[in-house]
Amino acid sequence: MNNGKTRILLLSDQVVDRFYNEQVRSIFPDVDMVISCGDLPYYYLEFILDRLNVPLYYVHGNHDPEVEFATHGERKHPWGAASLHRKIVNHQGIILVGFEGSVRYSKAKYQFSQWEAWLQVVQKFPALLWNRIRYGRYLDILVTHSPAYQVGDAEDRAHTGFKAYRWFLTVFRPKYHFHGHIHHYDHRELKPQTFEQTIVINACPYQVVEFE
Ligand SMILES: [Zn+2]
Q1: What is the reported pTM?
Q2: pLDDT tens digit string along 89-106?
Q3: Distance from Cα 155 to the centre of ligand 1, integer Å
Q4: How close is the Cα of 52 to the center of ligand 1, in Å?
Q5: What are the beta bridge partners of residue 142?
Q6: How far is the CA of 4 from the centre of ligand 1 (A)?
Q7: Are the C-beta atoms of residues 204 and 15 closer than 8 Å to each other?
Q8: DSSP code of 151?
Q9: Strand 56-58 to strand 82-83: parallel, antiparallel, or no bridges (unpaired)?
Q10: pLDDT tens digits for 31-66?
Q11: CATH class of segment(s) 6-211
C-alpha cells in the first residue's frame, strides 16, 4: 500500500508480451494486487504472480479451458491465485465480489444464461446485506468477465452483458466494476465510464487502478 492507496494491476483477455518477461518487475515495481478478469492462460497469470509476488485474484473467462496443458503440467486454474467467483473477499479492507464467465452462446464451460447469472447474483444478497450492516457498504469492487448489459458490452450475441450485473450495480453501488470480454483494437480508446455511482473499467488487456 502506498499512502493509503492500493495499486491494482488489471489483466484480461490478451497476453501482453512485455509483461510475460523478466522486465515485468521493473514495469510494475509498486503494484499491491493483481486482478484478472478472465480469458488469460494460466501460465501467464502464474508468471505474473511469481514475479510480482503479490496476491492475484481472478475470474474465469468464457475461453478459459477446463484443463490447461502446459509444459509444466496440467491445471484447472492458475496456481497460487484465488478465484472470486460467487465469493466475497475482504482483502485488507477492500471488499471484492466476483462472477466468472460470459453469456451463453455455445457449449463451453464458463458460460451462463441470463437467468443463471440472476441466480448467482441473488444468492449473494444476504452476505452483501451483512456487509452493509458490518462495514457500512455492500462492497467496493465487482469483478466479472462479462460486462453488465448496456454498460460497456457489445450488441452481438456473444458479447451481450448480463442484466443481473446491471441490477447489481444499481442496487449495491460498488465503487468499481472491473470486467473484460470486450476487445478494443486501440487500447487508448478505452476510457472508464460511470454507471450510477460506479466507475466501470474494461481491463482488456491491462489497466492500473489506484484504489483509495
Ligand atoms: Zn470473453
Answers
A1: 0.95
A2: 999 999 999 999 999 999
A3: 14
A4: 25
A5: 97, 177
A6: 33
A7: no
A8: B
A9: parallel
A10: 999 999 999 999 999 999 999 999 999 999 999 988
A11: alpha beta
